[in-house]
């Protein structure tokens, strides 16, 4: 880890490595959106990350050991980004941040449904999701990126998200 740390406080240390505006968002997009290529992370970002910021944050997350990068065998100019164990172990943190946000902030139903399901599922669902993520990011990262290796929990979260999105779209039309 090549950063200057201000104290030995675990909360401070965590904020020093993950507390910038984009790092957790990028990990979220890889974790919950299975966005594994630079272009997917750039073009599907709800928050609109700039390409230079994305490149810098990916480089930092790589150097800190939160993600890994390998060549994509289907395309010589593409790389596949995968979560590492430290990032996978952030699932409970994401669940709790999502639960807090749902209680205290004006969230949209569409973008908060996954947080709701994670909160309702509690630690058993988090553990199952982390096992699924290990399979698609560590054991079989190529299969996880191309869709041949999947996650039951991610499929459930994605289906709920798409259902709310479709319902919201039909109400607008």
TrEMBL record:
Please name the SUPFAM superfamilies in this protein's record.
Winged helix' DNA-binding domain
* Cited Pfam families: HxlR
**Is Transcription regulation found in the keyword set?**
yes
UniProt entry tagged with the keyword DNA-binding:
yes
GO molecular function ontology, one term from the record = DNA binding
Q: Which UniProt keywords apply?
A: DNA-binding, Transcription, Transcription regulation
Q: Which residues form the HTH hxlR-type domain?
A: 9-109
Q: What is this protein called?
A: Transcriptional regulator
Q: Which organism is it from?
A: Rhizobium chutanense
